[in-house]
Structures are given as structure tokens and as C-alpha cells.
């Protein structure tokens, strides 16, 4: 069973990172399946950022946050 975290838009204090918990449930599922893991701690994504961003994303939409993180882990390269 995949271990998901209740999402919320940017609950972390680091504006330049996207944490696993910042992702929507759908994006979390995609990330775990893409990385072939069931729990984010298997790749240390429970404590390390999923993605790094140049601009502050406090005002970004959930979709933009999800897309940025999935792009940085290579999700869209395989899907294409």
C-alpha cells in the first residue's frame, strides 16, 4: 500500500523547495509509482525535498506545485 501524506499548499517554511507533503494525493501516487517505491521514506523524501524551485511558490496553484515536482523526478520523460 502506498503511503500518502495529507497535502496542503506549501506548509513548509522553505520557499525554494517542494516537499512530498506539498503534493496533491494524485501527484504523490504518481511520484511513488514512478520511483517504484511504496513509502516516501524509501528515498528519504519524507525529510528531503522532492524538487527545488527558483521562484517563490507561496502563491502557486496546487497543479503548478505538482507539475514542478513530477517534472524534476523525471515523471514526464517516461510518460512521453
Question: Explain this structure to me?
Answer:
It is a single chain. The chain is mostly helical and 80 residues long. Helix content is 34%, strand content 5%. The chain has a two-stranded antiparallel ribbon with strand order 1-2. The longest helix has 11 residues, at 25-35. The chain is globular and about 35 Å long.
What is the compact description of this entry?
With 80 residues, this protein is mainly α. It has helices at 25-35, 62-72, 75-79; strands at 17-18, 51-52. It has one domain (17-79).
Strand line-up of the largest beta sheet: 1-2
Main pleated sheet: 2 strands, antiparallel
Shape descriptor reads: globular
Gap between N and C termini? 26 Å
Helix content: 25-40%
Record the SSE blueprint.
Layout: E1 17-18, H1 25-35, E2 51-52, H2 62-72, H3 75-79
Antiparallel strand pairs: 1-2
Helix pairs in contact: 1-2
Characteristics:
globular; 80 residues; 5% strand; two-stranded antiparallel ribbon; mainly alpha
Amino acid at each position: 500500500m502506498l503511503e500518502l501524506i495529507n497535502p496542503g499548499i506549501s506548509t513548509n517554511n522553505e520557499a525554494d523547495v517542494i516537499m512530498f507533503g506539498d503534493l496533491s494525493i494524485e501527484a504523490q501516487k504518481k511520484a511513488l509509482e514512478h520511483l517504484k517505491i511504496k513509502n516516501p521514506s524509501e528515498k528519504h523524501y519524507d525529510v528531503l525535498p522532492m524538487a527545488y524551485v527558483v521562484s517563490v511558490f507561496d502563491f502557486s496553484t496546487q497543479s503548478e506545485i505538482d507539475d514542478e515536482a513530477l517534472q524534476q523526478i523525471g515523471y514526464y520523460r517516461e510518460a512521453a
